[in-house]
Structures are given as structure tokens and as C-alpha cells.
Amino acid sequence: MEDLATELMSQLETKISFVIPIFEGIPVPASVVVTWGIMAFLMILTLVFVRNLKMVPTGPQIYVEALVGFINNFFEDILGEEGKRYIPYLGTVIIYIACANLIGIIGITPPTKDLNVTAGLAIMSIILIEYSGIHAKGGKGYLKSFAEPMALLAPINILEIIIRPLSLCMRLFGNVLGAFVVMELIKIVAPAIVPIPLSFYFDVFDGLIQAYVFVFLTSLFIKEKME
Amino acid sequence: MSAIIAIGAGIAVMTGIGAGIGIGIATSKAAESIARQPEAKGDINKALLLGCALAEATAIYGFVIAVLIILFLK
């Protein structure tokens, strides 16, 4: 029990992978390096798959078009016509979070297990949500929307600006950390074979569902702010 | 002292009871409504996922609090 607590504690800490030797030395966390890796991987994939695009798709282009079409349809259903401009950002985020959650399968620590990464994603989301409100209604209409449905509820509406990113951030982080802790406990009880099917649930299924839920909630909040 | 901390963490994880009941009710209603209206499956699935995500969040908060209690209070 004591060993597990110390190991969990060390897993929770932000690991520094290397230090950039300029000024006083800038520490670069491991999650940032893994994120760079995911970015490079996705960039290479996009460069490979968008070469030689044809009007009538053949080969891998069919799958790429199906994926892009699925993402576009999914967000368009929620956001409607005037929310189309936010689809590229939301699509990028869902692909990034899905890759980040799935990277644990090949033995790399998922960046989403770092609270700073999920907090960053949540802050970007809330900035986008509030921006979409300002863009759709103008500054005056945006401020007025805090007093809806009645002026008495304004404090609760303002509190939501803090609660929404906090719950987005904690949901993603807690799920990834929870899956990790449960998997560690299972590995202590039964080190062979048993973790494999459970890993599919906790790593693959849960990771994909959380990526989906994160962007789904973000787009729902954007839709609510735009109305 | 550590026994009290363990009890505290256990109480924090009890938030999972509410999440379990909530997700159970949501899923049973979703199954019922899909059986009644199979053509509305997509919309029902979406609403179910949203409800499950929101219900599950309470369990996750409880879990995070329990981990924090174990790690930082000892």
C-alpha cells in the first residue's frame, strides 16, 4: 500500500524531460515532448494522405474523407450553419485528445495524465466559448446574456465561466488518472493475461469516449452561447 | 491517523453511488426509448452520452478528492 502511494505520487508529478539551456534554463515537461511527437505524427499523416487527391476517391483517400465527413457532420448537427467556423478547431482537439489517450497502449505516458495539459485544453475551450458568444451577439448582447433568463441569476451565469473549464479539465484528467490507477491495481493482483482485455476498456474505449465527450460538451456550450 | 485518512478517502469515493444510479436510470430509459422508436437511435445515443458524461463527472470528482486525500494528508 505504501509503495503504491509513493508510486502514484511520483506519477502525479510533472516530469521534466530536458532543460533548454538559454537564460536560466527553461524546463520542458515530458508531456510537452510527447505532444510534439503526436503533432509530428499527425503532420506527417496529413502530408502523406492529402497528396494526389482525386475527384473520385480511391484507396486511403476514401477513409480520410469518411473521417473528415464524420467529424464535419457531427459538429454541424450541434452547431448549425453559423457555427461552422469553429469546426476545424474542435476537429483538431478531438483528434489530438484521441491520440493522446491512445498513446498509452504503446507504453508512452499519455500527456492527458498531466493536469497542466487538460487545464490548458479547458482554458482554450472556455476562451472559444466566450468568444463565440461575443462574435454572435456583439459585446452588448453578450453582456446582456448574463442577465438571462432573469437578472437574479447573473451570479450563477458568471460562476459558470469558472465551473465549466474546471469540470472539463477535471473530467478528462480524472478519467485518465482513474483508468491508470485501476490498471496499476489490476497489474498487482494479476500480472499476466488478465490486464489485456481490461486495458482495451480502460485505455481504448474510455480514452475515445472522453475525447468525444470533451469536444461534445465544448460544442454544446458554444451553441448555447451563440443562441 | 492513516486509518482515519483511509475512511475519509472511502467516504469521498461514495460519490460513485449517485453516478452509478444515475447512469443506470439513463441507460434503462435510453434502451426503452430506442425499443419504442428505433429510428431516433442517433439522437437518443447523443443525449445518453451527454447525460452519462455529466453523471459520471460526480464520480470522477469523488475519485480525484480521494486520491488527493490519500496523497497529500499522510
UniProtKB/TrEMBL annotation, chain A:
Signal peptide: none annotated. It is a multi-pass membrane protein. The lineage of its organism: Bacteria, Bacillati, Bacillota, Clostridia, Lachnospirales. GO terms for biological process: proton motive force-driven plasma membrane ATP synthesis. The keyword RNA-binding does not apply. Gene3D superfamilies: ATP synthase, F0 complex, subunit A. GO terms for molecular function: proton-transporting ATP synthase activity, rotational mechanism. This is ATP synthase subunit a. The chain crosses the membrane at residues 28-50, 86-108, 115-134, 172-194, 200-222. It comes from the Bacteria. Keywords: ATP synthesis, Cell membrane, CF(0), Hydrogen ion transport, Ion transport, Membrane, Transmembrane, Transmembrane helix, Transport. It comes from Mobilisporobacter senegalensis. GO terms for cellular component: plasma membrane; proton-transporting ATP synthase complex. The keyword Transcription does not apply. It is found in: Cell membrane; Membrane.
UniProtKB/TrEMBL annotation, chain B:
It is found in: Cell membrane. The record marks 56 as: Reversibly protonated during proton transport. One of its GO terms (cellular component) is plasma membrane. It comes from the Bacteria. One of its GO terms (molecular function) is lipid binding. It holds the Pfam family ATP-synt_C. Keywords: ATP synthesis, Cell membrane, CF(0), Hydrogen ion transport, Ion transport, Lipid-binding, Membrane, Transmembrane, Transmembrane helix, Transport. The keyword Transit peptide does not apply. PROSITE patterns: ATPASE_C (PS00605). It is a multi-pass membrane protein. The chain crosses the membrane at residues 6-26, 47-73. Residues 7-69 form the V-ATPase proteolipid subunit C-like domain. Belongs to the ATPase C chain family. Key component of the F(0) channel; it plays a direct role in translocation across the membrane. A homomeric c-ring of between 10-14 subunits forms the central stalk rotor element with the F(1) delta and epsilon subunits. NCBIfam families: ATP_synt_c. This is ATP synthase subunit c.
